[in-house]
Amino acid sequence: MKKLKRSARLVEMTQYLLSRPHTLISLTAFADRYQSAKSSISEDLAIIKEVFEGEGIGELHTLAGAAGGVRFIPMCRKDQALDRIGGICRQLEQPDRLLAGGYLYMTDLLGQPALLQEVGLMFATAFAGRDIDAIMTVETKGIPLAHATSLYLNVPVVIVRRDHKVTEGSVVSINYVSGSNKRIQTMSLARRALREQSRVLIIDDFMKAGGTIQGMVDLLHEFRAVVAGVGVFVESGEVDNEERLLHDYISLARLTEVDLKSRHITVQPGNFFKEERT
Amino acid sequence: MKKLKRSARLVEMTQYLLSRPHTLISLTAFADRYQSAKSSISEDLAIIKEVFEGEGIGELHTLAGAAGGVRFIPMCRKDQALDRIGGICRQLEQPDRLLAGGYLYMTDLLGQPALLQEVGLMFATAFAGRDIDAIMTVETKGIPLAHATSLYLNVPVVIVRRDHKVTEGSVVSINYVSGSNKRIQTMSLARRALREQSRVLIIDDFMKAGGTIQGMVDLLHEFRAVVAGVGVFVESGEVDNEERLLHDYISLARLTEVDLKSRHITVQPGNFFKEERT
């Protein structure tokens, strides 16, 4: 790269850091890349840090010393996130989203890139401190959420299939009972999709009793992998605590009331926004 | 937003533009946001433009006049893209990717956020000049590619299902013949997923004869929607031109040779990299 003026270097460094979250970049690498003194690079990083932290883009963690460097951790600000989840809850409450069986139509929302980026950043913020090797989800609607989160955590996504496809090679399958309709179903994952001992974050779009997520937890055991966290976009509040198979999870929104007759839906911010978590 | 110094403003403007591709932002909006004169904003944009265009991040299109503003169009540089697709082709050529039936295992690659961003940017570059309202793909492996592209084109993704799920509401289903195994299959899309007259970019992971993509084209006709383009990650070169159902598409890689006995695979850059397209 040709030598840049400070103003151009700030632009380049900003995009360079934004596209490499959770990655340690040494001051030496930056100094070489921009043919600049480490002291100048450090000054640039201080400016970027102040903007990123002030505007709710993320944190810049700097490591001092010979092996020193900088790591960009995408983090939203809770007040901004709460404001945005409020808007999402209002969208989820639209009466025409009610489908047969008390399900909510939300496929349209899960197709919008701006919303997915916001939600992905909320999950990445919730799990920023965990040690995570991969994100797991089950097809189909969890996939966009898992990938949106993976962009900010910079780890790969593995997708559990509801049937066994020929293009996956040898697979591990398990049966699970979906909590909402009590039917036995099958899910499978390619043997080579996950290394043993991986620390895995489970992401899904909707959770009632948690049967599907419990299935993924069981599948992880088959791979000798570890659950590093569970994040759901919308949880149903219509489940008793006894019925719930899973208690340690983060939800971004909570469906608290569905009245099929009046088509009235109430959606509130999830446990991510509870006081004790801030 | 509090008033920032020029250096901090450049950092903030860079991230602001990067997160809003294909969106017209007026100079007035920037001037208000940063409490700065339009002349200063214009100088900042000139610096950002030079870095973005020099480094292969994208183009900044400026519109002059009272309604003037700026639009960030993510675009990769062809030489950088060719270099990266070369690396991806080498990964696809690994002998242990060969599966029964001459299929290639590539689910692992389609889970890597950095690779998906590169490939998404290539598709966004290929189709930057088209007028696109939505991106369509069919579950499951096309989904990450469609979403990666949608981030750069800033349009929603609609996902065609291979079966009819209860949570989608009323759906339109069609039968199609998969070119590779000649079986009749069904695909469906929720009635409310796509507006009539939408201009739709179709994205998929793999194309042999093109039966699946032709199915999506037929489905679009049912919605009175228009095909704005077709992009495939890997096309099979083992198909005669007569056999191919589809001729107007962009491929990023081309599987030119599969020798099941010696397990030798050859993958080359796709038609996106052909001279006449540059």
Automatic annotation (TrEMBL), chains A, B:
Which parts of the sequence belong to the Bacterial purine repressor N-terminal domain?
5-74
Which keywords belong to this entry? DNA-binding, Transcription, Transcription regulation
Summarize the subunit comment. Answer: Homodimer.
Q: Name one GO molecular function term.
A: DNA binding
Q: What is the lineage of its organism?
A: Bacteria, Bacillati, Bacillota, Bacilli, Bacillales
> What gene is it encoded by?
purR
Family note: Belongs to the purine/pyrimidine phosphoribosyltransferase family. PurR subfamily.
Q: Which NCBIfam families match?
A: purR_Bsub
Q: What is this protein called?
A: Pur operon repressor
Q: Which InterPro entries match?
A: PRTase-like, PRTase_dom, Pur/Pyrimidine_PRTase, PuR_N, PurR_Bsub, WH-like_DNA-bd_sf, WH_DNA-bd_sf
- Determine if S-adenosyl-L-methionine is one of this entry's keywords: no
